[in-house]
């Protein structure tokens, strides 16, 4: 009882020291988390009930409760032991925590979590240490241990006993052994090379089978937890006759290295033990000694040859090494023991595992380079070079992949996006390890590019020309302009507007010449055009899209008015003619010309001067003598309109001659006018006066005739000057 009290005091001291160490570690972890918020660490005991708060995760990440709905704090992990409260942002336990089930016999146990926040997208790493509690009692593999000890065994002989197994770690798994007091035996504990305590039964006094042929005792294993837990095994000793040599192994510890995934039945190691006895006492059989179930699941030992072979799948990722004991027992019941250490070497048998943590459904095409569009996590269960992973994107795309913290990668835009060239990008993420041969995994990401108004409408032509005949109908279609916008939706819907125009000063104050339909871009005439008033004009049409802000472009439309033959020739000299239709010219009276009777053929009598407001062929004039008192006496030049004598004037010719000259244009149909010229054949004006006096009543007096002659000369001079001025102005305008 005193011994048990001392052991309990030592356990209490260890627990107090362990509690202080845990508090100190928790304080250091909390301080470290504030200093480096990208990696947080919490600690919590195992078997903590579901719903227990582990720590203020949102506060440690610098998030307030108001930020939680927008930032979408969540855990992205394959293990679902923990969850995050959507209201407070606390990290809490969601499932039962069993450290032994989660981490086995590992000295430390932690769960790594990937914490993802949105807007902006980021990932944080959180480690939760699972602290061991003393929830497992030491357990012996067998309920009873039978030993056979020869009576000739000398005092001091040692007999290894079965070791108890405690799944707990740390102080909770530190075992101490107690043995019920037997005068002939005592208990000693020996530490093995791998740090475990091996109980050994030591013979203190010589045995005498004739006095006592058997012994029974109880071996108790007590762990270091608080409160302490214990387990027992009954030891039954049978004293046999003389077999004074125990088997001896050739090595105290056997070591071997074997690659994972070796075929079942492969030879891993061969152990050998010898016994100096003869017969059945020297015949050795091999077996495992004090091995856990995990060893029995993957290894077997041949009892006769000592061959250790694989019977299960060796997986480096599950167990990197195995340490267990073996026993060689002879026919007389004596046994020898040795240790086996088998190291499993890694092979590249695991391809990288790609997990998409977050991906954007669409990205605006004006996103700057470096915009994060997806966040992925890559993990390879292999170790060393086999577990080192690098990622790349297959194919050509405006995206690239960059490493983030830990094993996370970000897919970002590498260059400007253009929805008009590609509205969607499908990229393949390839994760490869550095093993030989290399293993790789692939996953495809789809990214939609949303439209922004980055394209202005573009006209099919920079400048348009339209030709419209004058006297057109009001509302007639003149021309249709068309512009295209590469954007989509409202950003690509084009409307048309008139910006302005030029049609001369005379038309500046008038109503617009044309209008444009906003939807189709068709230009319509707002009035009937007159070539003589406006020969051409230009307007600017603006094409504007429906984006915000709107984009626009302009094109110039130049409208040329085509001339029609709608003006008859106008006679300036000798008189102004009245227009008439073809075949029915109007006749106008005119002044007299005096021609001497001595005039020869070719004498210039007068010149008929006429103009046409039309242009081109419609303004080309030709002159023709259609009526004369003496048709053979006069002729008219076809192009110039000059009236000359066709022959010499004779005395037989009448003193008074009346000439009717027709002026015709070249339009279709042709329009014409006539001019009447009176000619008096006389040597002088005084000689012509009698002829003039014979004119009908109402004719002009000689003074009136002189006035008309002077006026005609002045008009001819003015017409000449005006023609020169118009010609110069036309040339300047063309230049």
Automatic annotation (TrEMBL):
Record's keyword terms, sorted: Calcium, Cell adhesion, Cell membrane, Glycoprotein, Membrane, Repeat, Signal, Transmembrane, Transmembrane helix
Ranges annotated as spanning the membrane: 707-730
Boundaries of every Cadherin domain copy: 36-140, 141-249, 250-354, 355-459, 460-571, 595-692
GO terms, biological process: homophilic cell adhesion via plasma membrane adhesion molecules
Stored PROSITE patterns: CADHERIN_1, CADHERIN_2
SUPFAM superfamilies: Cadherin-like
Gene Ontology CC, one term: plasma membrane
Pfam families registered for this protein in UniProt: Cadherin, Cadherin_2
Compartment list: Cell membrane
The keyword Transport is annotated on this UniProt entry: no
Membrane topology category: Single-pass type I membrane protein
UniProt keyword annotation of Membrane present: yes
GO molecular function: calcium ion binding
PANTHER family: CADHERIN-87A (PTHR24028), PROTOCADHERIN GAMMA-B3-RELATED (PTHR24028:SF73)
Function, in words: Potential calcium-dependent cell-adhesion protein. May be involved in the establishment and maintenance of specific neuronal connections in the brain.
Protein known as: PCDGD protein
Species this chain originates from: Crypturellus soui
Lineage: Eukaryota, Metazoa, Chordata, Craniata, Vertebrata
